[in-house]
Design goal:
51% of the residues lie in helices and 11% in strands. Strands 1, 2, 3 and 4 form a four-stranded antiparallel sheet that branches. The protein has a three-stranded antiparallel sheet with strand order 6-5-7, with helices on one face. Strand 2 and strand 3 form a beta hairpin. Helix 2 runs antiparallel to helix 3. It starts with a strand and ends with a strand.
Length: 373
């Protein structure tokens, strides 16, 4: 509402009144101030480039000024929120990357954009807000460019860089692992590179284009180093215990000794470490027993003391078997192959002997040796 140079304000704020029905019951008429043409042009230009508020009159007037400020206020709110979200995401990554906020040009630039938005909101009156907009187009003494150029650059990058920073927050573990365990090359590619990206300004590089490649490098280095560390730990543990997990396969060699005939068959020995140890049947040949009719023939008493019945029956009635025990015949055969193959060969040879000499008793001694070759 403009009444010959006065502006209607409600609770200290400019009010737009379309007709008398929308006019508040209580309002205050304040002397309206309109900026000059040069300030208006600068304010319109900043509003269009920074806030994307367009379509304004070429010459200033109270209604046009009020409309520009109203539309700019809505856009400023959106930009201020976006700048705050960007600073939150950047600070989160910079914290575990050990980059102080004051060292980050990106953080400082985003902070200046947020401060500009806050300054617009704290300005009172349409003319003051219009002048605030116009100030961003003025090149300060000693500066090379107007603040508007940087502010526009930052505002355009806010959304895409915020998304990139939020993705990078998931690489904290990889970053710290590489920093602690990586080679100099790994640390340069992951640790130093991220810190440089965070400290560089918006005009140097774009986090939206650089961070995806950095994340891929960080993940690759983390997986490689984690795998190497796991393998080293596993190897050290195996070496310490002294128990190899892969036993060496050995090809067994069996030696079968058949002695025929004997008085009492003995149980084959299971020892494998000493195949040359003589059997118990010849351990005490000089001690005859009273039960044996032929004192020069050793009996099975010394070899198998747990089976005296066979000794007693043989002593009561000496048989041809006992008399012939003094001239045993030994046949030694070497069998080579796997355990299953040796077992099959033993069974086959035993069957052949039994089929040819039925009624004859045999003593079979099997010695198993592992062939390391």
């Amino acid at each position: 509402l403009d009444v010959q140079g006065f502006e209607a304000q409600i609770d200290g704020k400019s009010a737009t009144v379309h007709d008398l029905s929308s006019l508040a019951d209580k309002f205050k008429l304040v002397k309206d101030e309109v900026v000059d043409a040069a300030t208006w042009d600068a304010a319109v230009k900043v509003a269009g480039e920074l806030l994307e508020v367009k379509g304004r009159a070429d010459l200033p007037s109270s209604p046009e000024q009020a409309k520009l400020v109203k539309d700019a206020a809505e856009a400023v709110t959106r930009v201020e929120v976006a700048a705050g979200a960007y600073l939150t995401a950047l600070t989160s990554v910079a914290k575990w990357a050990d980059v102080a906020p004051e060292r980050s040009k990106r953080s400082l630039a985003a902070g200046r954009l947020k401060a500009f938005c806050e300054g617009f909101g704290s300005s009172l009156g349409n003319a003051a807000r219009a002048r605030w907009l116009a100030s961003a187009a003025k090149v300060a003494e000693g500066a090379t460019e107007a603040p508007k150029i940087e502010l526009v650059r930052v505002r355009k990058a806010l959304a895409i860089e915020t998304a990139a920073l939020r993705e990078a927050t998931h690489q904290e573990t990889a970053f710290e692992f590489v920093a602690a365990n990586g080679t100099d090359e790994d640390k340069t590619a992951v640790v130093t590179r991220l810190r440089n990206l965070l400290t560089d300004g918006f005009e140097t590089s774009s986090l939206a284009t650089q961070l995806p490649g950095w994340r891929a490098d960080a993940n690759a280095a983390f997986k490689r180093l984690a795998k190497t560390t796991h393998t080293t730990t596993h190897t050290t543990t195996t070496h310490t215990t002294g128990a190899p997990t892969t036993p060496t396969a050995a090809t067994p060699t069996a030696t079968t000794t058949t002695t025929t005939p004997t008085g009492v068959p003995t149980t084959p020995t299971a020892a494998t470490s000493a195949p040359t140890t003589p059997t118990a049947t010849t351990s005490a040949p000089t001690t005859p027993t009273a039960a044996t009719s032929v004192p020069t023939t050793p009996t099975a008493t010394t070899a198998a003391p747990t089976t005296p019945t066979a000794t007693t029956s043989a002593a009561a009635t000496p048989t041809a078997t006992t008399s012939a025990a003094a001239t045993p015949t030994d046949t030694t055969t070497v069998l080579t192959g796997t355990a299953a193959e040796i077992q099959a060969q033993i069974s086959e040879r035993t069957s052949v002997l039994l089929s040819k000499q039925k009624g004859t008793r045999f003593r079979v001694v099997v010695t198993v040796e592992a062939d390391e070759s």
